């Protein structure tokens, strides 16, 4: 079942859907639907089940089960309609149901492009390779300080007001996005923040959503197993900066792809940078392992603030979030006044998250899983610590192998000691993944500074056992996730819990 559904949805008739989207319809067009499901496992009574063609099995093969669970109509293509002929419910037929899913969901739930102007939320979208989740949580933290309830869809969590649930995909299917927006509207939550991946744009997951302000963090090496080259990866993200999707954009122009986006954006764009030449300049004024302070200056105005997070990149993310609020129509003085003691109190699950106590080594758990994210994280640690840096990391199996060599090199060049371990090997040989990471590490350091320990809980235990007071142990990769995926099985595992257990074992942490 989808994480969020409105409790009192207004119905739409099959006839209204057919007329709005030009669908052929077989069966009783007076039937009313109140929700949309694209997975038979997520069907609830009175749903429209959208049966999508799959790589191996057509979704229409699951339509009988969906109808048994309460679906009252099916939307599919002509091949799917043949499989739904005798279900006894109306069948809507369209050539490409995947491209229609988001728009139909918006129509049924009265969200996005079909929202009533009086009830529509202020919607932010964030894309980029690294930092999306952090910016999303910073946007939410500012919203709450402004006295606004917020809905969030991120890699880590989905939230509507005070209700929180776990998240699977960075951006879920479009019917779930619109159900979340409808739930927010029903609960009078008037701000929504959506983390938008490249896949979300390529695979229609944010279709039908109208973004008021979108933000771009950066573009670096990732997902080149899904996109053949950087050009197509960039093109996927650039799609968010079009008038069909968004009103205004804010771009952090510290990398060349971001600067190119400014020139190719089809909506008005405001720029932020840590270097002169942007509309807004962000400057780090003070940094520690647990807090980063900064000044944001532009257009004759300025703001001093801090975040309880590590690294200059955290200040950059916070600046991007602040400027997105400014572009949404909130005066910088209003934002400044809302920040109690100048602090944006963002708690970001698994992003440079401190899991250690007040004594002993500082232990951070982070979601970094790209070369650029490794570099930023390690630079942030080095800037605030005189002790050794011990880094524990692995690499995803069945995901973009081209980044592994560079991940190993950057980890080794930025650390004093590295521990290579397994991280979601999936169906790949984990020893082969580790071997590539080691090959990259040897480009930057000596063999005696490399440990290889396959089991992740043993790897973090070894790293913490080697650490001394004043050292920093960085556990990069798992972040907020609560599983370790091996050969199709998701084995329960929390890097945060494993690190805390190792700290207790070493006598650094007490319950």
What would the keywords be for this entry?
single chain, eleven-stranded mixed sheet, six-stranded mixed sheet, 23% strand
Describe the structure.
- The protein is 32% helix and 23% strand.
- The chain is built from 16 helices and 26 strands.
- The protein has an 11-stranded mixed beta sheet with strand order 11-10-9-12-8-13-14-15-16-17-18, sandwiched between helices. Strands 19-20-24-21-22-23 form a 6-stranded mixed beta sheet, with helices on both faces.
- The model has no long low-confidence stretch (mean pLDDT 94).
What layout of secondary structure does this protein have?
Layout: E1 12-13, H1 14-21, E2 24-26, E3 32-33, E4 35-37, E5 47-50, H2 63-68, E6 73-76, H3 78-83, E7 91-93, H4 97-109, E8 122-127, H5 132-145, E9 150-153, E10 157-160, E11 163-166, H6 174-186, E12 191-195, H7 198-202, E13 211-216, H8 230-238, E14 246-252, H9 256-264, E15 269-273, E16 280-287, E17 292-298, E18 301-307, H10 312-327, H11 332-338, E19 353-354, E20 362-366, H12 371-384, E21 389-393, H13 404-414, E22 417-420, H14 430-442, E23 450-452, H15 456-466, E24 472-476, E25 483-486, E26 489-492, H16 495-505
Parallel strand pairs: 4-5, 5-6, 6-7, 8-12, 8-13, 9-12, 13-14, 14-15, 15-16, 20-24, 21-22, 21-24, 22-23
Antiparallel strand pairs: 1-3, 2-7, 9-10, 10-11, 16-17, 17-18, 19-20, 25-26
Q: What level of helicity do the residues show?
A: 25-40%
**Helix/strand structural class:** alpha/beta
The rounded distance between the terminal residues' Cα atoms is 37 Å
Mean pLDDT: 94
Query: What's the tally of helices?
Result: 16
Largest sheet: 11 strands, mixed
Tell me, what's the shape?
Answer: globular
Structural Rg: 24 Å
Poorly predicted regions are none
Strand content: 15-25%
Q: Please give the number of β-strands.
A: 26
């Amino acid at each position: 079942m989808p994480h969020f559904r409105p409790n009192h949805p207004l119905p739409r008739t099959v006839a209204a859907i057919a007329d709005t989207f030009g669908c052929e319809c077989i069966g009783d067009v007076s039937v009313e639907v109140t929700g949309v499901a694209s997975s038979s496992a997520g069907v609830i009574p009175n749903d429209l089940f959208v049966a999508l063609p799959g790589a191996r099995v057509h979704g229409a093969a699951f339509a009988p089960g969906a109808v048994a669970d309460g679906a009252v109509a099916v939307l599919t293509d002509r091949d799917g309609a043949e499989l739904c002929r005798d279900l006894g419910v109306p069948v809507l037929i369209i050539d490409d149901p995947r491209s229609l899913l988001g728009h139909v969901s918006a129509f049924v739930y009265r969200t996005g492009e079909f929202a009533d102007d009086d009830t529509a939320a202020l919607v932010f979208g964030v894309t980029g390779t690294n930092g999306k989740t952090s910016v999303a949580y910073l946007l939410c933290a500012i919203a709450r300080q402004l006295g606004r309830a917020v809905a969030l869809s991120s890699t880590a969590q989905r939230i509507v007001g005070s209700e929180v649930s776990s998240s699977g995909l960075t951006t879920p299917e479009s019917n779930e996005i619109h159900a979340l927006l409808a739930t927010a509207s029903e609960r009078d939550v008037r701000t929504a923040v959506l983390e938008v991946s490249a896949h979300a744009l390529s695979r229609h997951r944010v279709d039908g959503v109208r973004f008021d302000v979108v933000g771009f963090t950066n573009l670096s090496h990732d997902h080149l197993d899904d996109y053949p080259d950087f050009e197509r990866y960039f093109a996927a993200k650039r799609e968010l900066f079009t008038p069909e999707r968004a009103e205004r954009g804010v771009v952090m122009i510290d990398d060349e792809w971001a600067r190119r986006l400014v020139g190719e954006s089809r909506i008005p764009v405001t720029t932020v940078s840590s270097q002169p030449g942007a509309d807004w300049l962000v400057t780090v004024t003070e940094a520690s392992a647990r807090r980063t302070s900064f000044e944001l200056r532009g257009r004759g105005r300025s703001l001093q603030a801090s975040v309880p997070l590590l690294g200059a990149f955290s200040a950059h993310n916070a600046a991007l979030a602040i400027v997105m609020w400014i572009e949404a129509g909130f005066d910088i003085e209003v934002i400044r006044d809302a920040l109690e003691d100048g602090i944006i109190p963002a708690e970001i699950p698994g992003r440079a998250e401190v899991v250690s106590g007040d004594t002993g080594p500082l232990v951070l758990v982070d979601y970094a899983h790209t070369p650029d994210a490794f570099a930023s994280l390690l630079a942030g640690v080095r800037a605030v610590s005189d002790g050794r840096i011990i880094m524990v990391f692995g690499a995803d199996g069945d995901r973009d192998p081209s980044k592994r060599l560079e991940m190993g090199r950057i980890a080794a060049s930025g650390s004093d000691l590295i521990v290579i371990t397994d991280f979601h090997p999936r169906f790949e040989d984990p020893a082969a993944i580790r071997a590539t990471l080691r090959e990259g590490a040897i480009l930057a350091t000596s063999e005696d500074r490399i440990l290889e320990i396959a089991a992740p809980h043993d790897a973090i235990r070894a790293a913490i056992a080697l650490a001394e007071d004043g050292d920093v142990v960085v556990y990069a990769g798992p972040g907020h996730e609560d599983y370790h995926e091996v050969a199709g099985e998701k084995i329960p595992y929390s890097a945060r819990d494993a690190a805390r257990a190792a700290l207790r074992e070493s006598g650094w942490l007490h319950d």
